[in-house]
Design brief:
Number of helices of chain C: 6
Structural class of chain B: mainly alpha
Oligomer: heterotrimer
Helix content of chain B: 55-70%
CATH superfamily of the largest domain in chain C: Cupredoxins -  blue copper proteins
Mean pLDDT of chain B: 93
Shape of chain C: elongated
CATH topology of the largest domain in chain C: Immunoglobulin-like
Number of helices of chain B: 18
Chains: A mainly alpha (208), B mainly alpha (547), C alpha+beta (340)
Low-confidence stretches of chain C: 318-340
Structural class of chain C: alpha+beta
Order of helices and strands of chain C: HHEEEEEEEEEEHHEEHH
Number of domains of chain B: 1
Mean pLDDT of chain C: 85
Low-confidence stretches of chain B: 1-10
CATH architecture of the largest domain in chain C: Sandwich
CATH architecture of chain B: Up-down Bundle
Shape of chain B: globular
Radius of gyration of chain B: 23 Å
Distance between the termini of chain C: 45 Å
Largest interface: B-C, 94 and 85 residues
CATH topology of chain B: Cytochrome C Oxidase, Chain A
CATH superfamily of chain B: Cytochrome c oxidase-like, subunit I domain
Largest sheet of chain B: none
Number of strands of chain C: 12
Amino acid sequence: MEQQKETATLGMWLFLVTEVMFFGGMFCAYLIYRMDYYTAWVAGSERMNIYLGTTNTAVLICSSLTMVLAVHFAKLGNRKATAIFLVLTILLGLGFLGIKGVEYHEHWVHHEFPGPNFHFDAPKPGAALQYSPKNVEIFFSLYFAMTGLHAIHMIIGVGLLTWLLVRNARGDFSAYYNSPIEMTGLYWHFVDVVWIYLFPLLYLIRHK
Amino acid sequence: MAMASAAITQDEKPNYLNADYGIKSWLLTTDHKRIALLYLISITMFFFLGGFFAMLIRLELLTPAGDLVTSDTYNKLFTMHGIVMVFLFLIPAVPTVLGNFLVPMMIGAKDLAFPKLNLASWYVYILGGCWVLYAIITGGVDTGWTFYTPYSTTFSNTNVVAAAVGIFIAGFSSIFTGINFIVTIHRMRAPGLTWRRLPLFIWSNYATSVIMVLGTPVLAITLLLVAAERLFHLGIFNAQLGGDPLLFQHLFWFYSHPAVYIMILPGMGVISEVVTCFSRKRVFGYDFVALASICIAVLGFLVWAHHMFVAGISVYAAMVFSLLTFFVAIPSAVKVFNWIATMYQGSISFETPMLYAFGFIGLFTMGGMTGLFLGSLGIDVHVHDTYFVVAHFHYVMVGGMVMAYMCGLHFWWPKITGKMYPEGWAKLSALLTFVGFNLTFFPQFILGYMGMPRRYHAYPPEFQVLNVLSTAGASVLAVGYVLPMIYFVWSLRYGQDAGPNPWRAAGLEWMTSSPPPTSNFETTPVVTWEAYNYDEIDKQQEVPVAS
Amino acid sequence: MWSNLPLFPARASTLAGHVDALYFLLVAVTAFFTILIAALILIFAIRFRKTKHPVARQIHGSNALELTWTIIPLGISMIFFVWGAAIYFTETRPPKDSMEVYVVAKQWMWKFEHTEGQREIDELHVPEGRDVRLIMTSQDVIHSFFVPAFRVKADVLPGRYTSTWFHATKTGRYHLFCSQYCGTGHSSMVGTVVVMSPAAYQRWASSGTDGSLASTGEKYFQQYGCSTCHSSNTQGRGPNLVGIFGKPVLLDDGRRVIADESYIRESILNPEVKVVSGFKPIMPTFQGQINEEGLVALVAYIKALGNGMANPPMPVNNPEKAPYPVPPKPEASQATPSAK
């Protein structure tokens, strides 16, 4: 059992390494374009809803707390508490996705989704911040690509947690065997960490 | 598959093939050996599909004018030849067929660390492969297997998204296999089997798995961004929005260069096993060969921009990458010298696997050294994107990796099926492959230096003679590949029974019956000997079968 | 003599001999090692075959040998690296006072614009014995300019300028290939480089053009209202452009950049990215209003200002009436040569 648990843990960490490389490509693209088009990045970032973004960050951090507690109680063999905290994690995750949906809708309505409907006002001549709207479109492309991929990972995470809930109700887990919960916890924390990087990079850029 | 299972009844001893019958027992298996066979069948089909496209390409290139197929069709042919061969054949072949079968056995384990993940990897591979097939059948893709932007994102009118999605999915198969191998090799070695007693095939697959785990996700995100750009007009690689087409190239080659080491490292592992066996000797310089595999994996991640010397990168960046490219060649050279030194003072026999190994060493040397031409900046400017490059990578991939794959298939066929292939026909195939290969690809070095660009459907008439030679060679090479298909299948029914260790080879996999039982070993072996202990083996009359 | 053997293309540039020399060294070393390895395999296979050598002698290894066959290949590789890098360094540093030709590539043709005003499609006339620098851009996808006889190749990218140069040494007609896959007509995107004697080139260049490239650029400079802000007598709303080409420019964020072709092009299309120190970021963008050939003409004009070979821009009559310059409406730009 111990060997199985260690094996599963090594496997999950390796998988998370692949996820780092996966998101890494887009972080790379983001950084390169930010160096070239800093003012466009400022313009785009100022269009982010910082209140919703901050709320979402708090929601995700709380969900990581509830996840840790779920793992903790699973290790103690407390099925009921495990279920409660799994449910809370799922709800927080869904809350995050809901808020994200609201944000996406706002962007869509303001023609901030890249493509033929994209429209971003050019800066007035003489304004302090000069940028090209076309470069702002690249910012939004990366915003939707990065947060979109993150959201997909969240949805998969919520799916995994639901499945864990079912298995927990069936009595599959005990103090002796609970590694699926722990492994899913690792995944969930990773998705949280990705957001912790995304949030300042996308929401918090202001003109120097 | 059912036929194969029914044919092998030799001792009535239960083995993995006759343990269970029926399609469900195969499609829902978690036995790594059966999964290896599932991969073998699917990979062979994709190999012949890619080969079919190659045949059409070579036929078209018989004449200078573009008269066999239209330009668009030709562009689709070379694209799909590349995609199918690279992603659906070369990357998976040795790891998923030979690796899946042998890695647990070579370390004395019952199976891989995550057997269900292994089955999932095959299904994911099939799903990705079918998606690519869908892209092919519904009109094809014409971007080249390299998908350069902005052609692929903005200008091509073909099934780019479908092809990209198919490759994206198939990439997960690589990632799952890589994770499985790394965890298995770390955690499931038999008692007494220290790292330095491992067969070099394991070292090679370990290094390969590290590359698969680190590199494949970058390709995944790159292709995803290309698909997203096409579908949603994102603009990340679109110059008109300020996007950078060169960013695509950097991201693409960051994976696709290490990818070529995914292809060759397992093949090199095969060669280490075969050269030692048919020289009856320990490998010369075990530590160095093992270390070389790791060095290739690490250095392989540092050279990607040598595909971009004329693309518009800075002079200083180009010099750094050129220097690193020369460094990455050295461990491969070290391996070649070690294999030859292994032969020295050996006791050499010339069964088919050894012939393929000879072919590999010679052709890989040529292919590798022509890589030095390309790494040398002044030369690369002239030969980049010409047939010189095409010849170089076919030398290492076909003359190298495919030869190693055939070598391994022949070497372990008796273990996998319990049957011997017909030696005479096999030797003939090896010879035909070697001759056909050289005739196909050597003229392309000359064509390239003379200036014939890649991906050209029509060409100036002075290039015709060399093209005709190349096509002639291709027809010989094709025979060299079709023959084994035939006699391998023939051997399942009519081949001689092989016995547990027909080659008297070292390695735990030979210490169990052929075909092996489902749990590989009756009892877990305890290892007290060094790898390739041929002196001890040859002193004994028979190789003991662990029972 | 060697050029009769169909093993390599004609040597028609100063570079070709150097590239071929390195190539021959590489061929020789490759042949040496391939033959060595093949010979060793053959010799060992025969000398140590089972029937003649039934018992193998186990040899674990030899650190000395390992070191030898690591160091020697490394040393040989370094020779290739240094020599190759040296050639590359020359290839990427066009000599000063090179003759310049602008290249605009598109699916699936090559457009050449000489500074004297000559325009060519798919055929490039150059004089023998002179350094020729190409400044290239693409209208659509990535192409690549490849002349095997010169041993020269450079990718041609959309959205920026790339450049290469050569010095032709033999008159004649040589293949020009596009060597970066670019779609349906990739293999038909071929042309010819015609190397003429200097006298013949002079005659060709001065026949039948309607003004030099720089004078075309001057027309656009007026037409698009550039002289409203960039006029010669005042450091007005925009920096004076006379003599700036090739010189360093101090930007408002403290960076110093060289005013080369790419800088000029970027300043017209994305002016806010690099703002000259001491000026306000008020220049509008002309993206979508000027095509690549128009940009090339403007670049040539600004370059010529630096040499004193073109007329400096004159100020507009009533600068106060137009506080911020308004670019002409799209209909007005029909005079530009159609690019598509």
